[in-house]
Design brief:
This protein has 127 residues and is an alpha+beta fold. 31% of the residues lie in helices and 24% in strands. Strands 1-2-3-4 form a four-stranded mixed sheet. Helix 3 links the parallel strand 1 (26-27) and strand 2. The chain starts with a helix and ends in an 11-residue tail after the last strand.
Amino acid sequence: MTTDALLETLTPRIIAFTAERRLPAIYPFSDAVQQGGLMSYSADFFAIWQRAASYVDRILKGARPADLPIEQATALALKINLKTAKALGLNLPADAHIAGGRGDRITFRRRLWHTASAGRPPTGSGY
């Protein structure tokens, strides 16, 4: 499914459609997984908000925004609805259930942060 805002209101119908036809589908936002969609792969918005709060904190403490490094956060989360996966007959690796979740959902996270000084492209990476 695409990230088109016009389709967001149709997400429950799309989830029902794919479930009826036993079609695996991946969604752009984790809300779909909470509503019964199979999986989502998207930015970890909580991590992005945390990084934004760090910038606000530095600015409020007197840092000049132009002097702050440019950061591109790539914090990704793959979320899988286990109940939907089971209904579709999908087998997940046994260790997938250990990755973290709430019993009916599991989440895999990957963080990769890029930092660069103002005016220069990001270099290097870290996990």
